[in-house]
Amino acid sequence: MTLAVVDMHTGGEPLRIVTGGYPKIPAGTILEKRAYVRDHLDHLRKILMFEPRGHYDMYGALLVEPDLPGADLAVLFMHNEGYSTMCGHAIVALGRYAVDEGLVARQEPVTTVNIEAPCGLVVASVEVQDGMAGAVSFESVPAFLFARDQKVELPGYGAIGFDIGYGGAFYALADCHQFGLEFGKNRVRDFVDAATALTDRLKAEFPLSHPDHADLAFLYGTILTDGQDVFSDTPTKNICVFAEAEVDRSPTGSGVTARLAAMHAKGQIAGQTRLFESIAGSRFSGSVARTAKAGPHDAIIARVGGRAFYCGRAEFIVETDDELGRGFLLR
Prior knowledge:
Layout: E1 2-10, E2 13-20, H1 30-40, H2 42-49, E3 60-64, E4 73-78, H3 88-100, E5 110-117, E6 120-129, E7 132-139, E8 143-154, E9 158-166, E10 170-175, H4 188-205, E11 219-225, E12 236-242, E13 246-247, H5 253-265, E14 273-277, E15 283-294, E16 297-306, E17 308-317
Parallel strand pairs: 2-3, 4-5, 10-11, 12-14
Antiparallel strand pairs: 1-2, 1-17, 3-4, 5-6, 6-7, 7-16, 8-9, 8-16, 9-10, 11-12, 12-13, 14-15, 15-16
């Protein structure tokens, strides 16, 4: 077995793009492909995402044949827990990758790449100058505020206020100060513990629904913010803890989309462009491109932008008698 990959990062968050080694995925909708890979090929995710080739916070992308009309490519996202429905940092990286690899015709000054994700069609705009791909922005599926100004009692933390926003995936959104935390003063581990406690509680007690498909209706994680939601020229900081307590090094593209939906619903942002900063210091731009509807929900189309860079290329093998080589995780 040989698995070939290209490694990139967007704002510090890794993306391992599979370029060879997977068997052919049967035809079907993107959600059917996601279910097939989850049910039949999950051992390959573990080989690529887990140690000794990956790590607890590794993230990956598997390109598959698109099903939606007009899509240039389709992607399945993978991480330490399974397969997500949307990933903004991956879209930024894949936009540049698609231009560089000739998966779409290169156009200057902007090349459009239509990417089918499990949540729907995402349109990436790749800046191209002198034949070189640069910054990427994208417009995702309609994003909306699902639950506003909710409260829950968390052992060890007390009453915690939160919103739930959808930006291609559902996130709980909460001010970190409620947990006694402050960016730059507390350990990342403290943020992870707080976010995980809220995620686990809401998964057990707060049912979600999505107007398009039941497979989209799950809480992906929690985003703890600095509480600076009202528009300002100063960047607002957040940390996204998703999947199985995985920490996003970037500001989180789908998370920024969800935050923008919540901000817009609360009248905290209109046509301005806001900067969102991660725990690694990287930044995404975010703005409300236009309003929309998602079933019964008032929604927005957000535009989120960032930069992606290459890290390397590799081929991975698994020897037949190497049990640890099939993947393990330590935390």
